[in-house]
Amino acid sequence: MTAKSVLLTAAAVAVLAGVCLLGSLSVRVQATLVAVQQHQVVHADVAVYGSTPGGIMAAVAASRGGANVTLVSATTLIGGMCSSGLGKTDKGDPSVIGGLAHEFFGRVGARYNSTEPVYDFEPHVAEATFHDMLADANVTLVLNQHVTRLVKRDDDPTVIHALQFDQDLTVIAKRFIDASYEGDLLPLANVSFTIGREGQQQYNESLAGFRGRAMGHEFGVAVDPFDAHGNLLPLVSPQPKEKVGDGDGRVQSYNFRLCVTQDKTNRVPFAKPPNYNASAWELARRLFTAAVPPASRLPSGNLGPLPNGKFDMNNDGPISTDFIGGSQDWPTATPKQREIIWQAHKEYTQGLLWFLSQDPALNESVHDAMRNWGLCKDEFEAYDHWPPILYVREGRRMQGDLVFTQSLVERQREHDIGAASIGMGSYNYDMHNAQRYACTNKTACTAFSLPYAWNEGDVEQNPGYHYQIPYGALLPRKSQATNLLVPVAVSASHVGYGTLRMEPQFMIMGQAAGTAAAIGIQVAIPAPVQDINVKTLSKELKAAGQIVTQAPPTPEPHANCTFQDSVDYDHAPWSWPTTSRSQCCGMCAAYDGCVAAVFRYAGSPKNTCWPVLQGHKHKQPHPRTQGIVSCLLQHEN
């Protein structure tokens, strides 16, 4: 571990004890906690490591598919970030959230007496809902266990036989699912993975690599990053040597998603950290004295409203709850090292809140705004009201035969991936800042005339349409592991992972992994997960409510629709000959309420009509109909 990971305080070397990473071993079977004997061996059809939302949905799906399932959690609190403060769900378009994810949000809604899914919720409600789903599925849940060793079969090094844990537990299973945020089974299984950011050229991604400057959460004023002696201030790194688009090994920043309130009856004041050093906040002091935030909101915090007067506090601004640079060593750190990094993030966040509440250099309006807020007294009561799980936005990323990339998403403008789809997503490419540096090169740093502090790495850009998630993103290379599925640390580039890494998508991918793990599990040695028939998997997912496509259903042709053999309807971008364009536009104009036209795309049967605009002329066409927009406009005008 480098000094950069514990940049703020020397107290980070103290090991955090008794918060969430340590504790007595226990197992929850249905709703009952029972002690586990030492040297316990548990046999299961499917073993899931990681009680993230993706891991829980994988366990539930596998159990509902007929498998005997054991879920092992490294923490006491289950539910990952949904139960640890991320109550303002990054849902994107909820129309693509189906299956178990939709069921989870529906169950949450029922707890709030709503007949509709509820996507913004209190942490304890999420945790209770996850426990209910596991109990209903009869999943065996083991708490407080870190994996230490993975054992493969002697006669086949691609087949995992067992996992061993740090409290003398061994779990033997036929198939395994790594649902940890960090991808902790990958190195143990000798499965290829990567950390950091690819260069633009590796996968032809315009958003990849070193960004030069951030798209958001950037300094709007020139803040001097040097002290009076010319040394860098705390929280600032030297200017990097990379050029825009170059790859590097940097990890985007993590934070805690605090659950806060202004309710005086349920408010715990922000505490001063035991090793608070006011000089460590000189950069923030210069920023907040140069640009005073509005008194109408919590300074340096993005507040997402939750039920019962609570808020999900997230990063907002150039110096906020993201501990930029502090996450670098987390992905490959040991549990003990992660305790140190966890504590450094806590002290950073406590220090920020205390600084904003008390520092005499700040405007009194900033103090007043901060003092109206505090931690929720009725959340995380076993952890001093502090969320026990750090928001690990990205750890290891598996490298399988298929890598989910920005380019892969863009290619979906032209075609549906069919049965290979195991779900859908819609959220932004969302990557947080990876570093804060002193911008001193006047050729590259042109925002201000003097050297200044600059954040780098933030990307917030919407793909522009919904996309499908391929089954291959969950699969390691067949030569490395044949009975392992990975629905969280999936095979993706940094940019591709930026849109996949939201909890609804983790639930969607977790359900797919669990469903796949249960297919053919009854035999002594199930087939490699790479050989599972995707049509069978797709059928089971759709039967369970998973949304795998938004292509319109294939309707029966209207009597007036005739297929023109001379027209190349299948060829992207559907640029048929001018002589037959009018025929295309008029073919099925009266069909099923279509305002203008229909088209046939590759793979659909002849004489198939696809409605493009239904209802009124302002409705957006399906993304794959963009090629006939000009044709549509002829009929719209």
UniProtKB/TrEMBL annotation:
InterPro entries: FAD/NAD-bd_sf, HdrA-like. SUPFAM superfamilies: FAD/NAD(P)-binding domain (SSF51905). It holds the Pfam family FAD_oxidored. One of its GO terms (molecular function) is oxidoreductase activity. Keywords: 4Fe-4S, Iron, Iron-sulfur, Metal-binding, Oxidoreductase. PANTHER family: COB--COM HETERODISULFIDE REDUCTASE IRON-SULFUR SUBUNIT A, FERREDOXIN:COB-COM HETERODISULFIDE REDUCTASE SUBUNIT A. This is FAD dependent oxidoreductase. It comes from Salpingoeca rosetta (strain ATCC 50818 / BSB-021). The lineage of its organism: Eukaryota, Choanoflagellata, Craspedida, Salpingoecidae, Salpingoeca.
